[in-house]
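Board notes (copied after class):
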Amino acid sequence: MVAQIDYKVHGIVREIKETHAMIKYHEAGDDPADVIMADQFRHRKDQLLKELFAELMMSGTSFKEMKSFVRRLTDYLEKSDKAADASNELKSNLAEVEMMLVG
């Protein structure tokens, strides 16, 4: 199980590196399409980072070991977030779960 998760994480990290390289390539370009392409690759990178986050959370790896990386990752995702706001129902459900975390 651990080897399978490590393999998945390794694959996601490889894709993030490749995507990041494409962002840099298009940012340096002077073709008008480069702006659009860089934005598309940024979106792909954000999706991959979310996938990485999910895999890490499901991996069973010590949260203490990942805590600083996860904090930096969530800070990055928060800054780049362009998703729709959560519904009132979802907020309510999460508030209920949050109450269970402290009690």
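Comment from the instructor: The mean pLDDT is 91. DSSP finds four helices and no strands in the chain.
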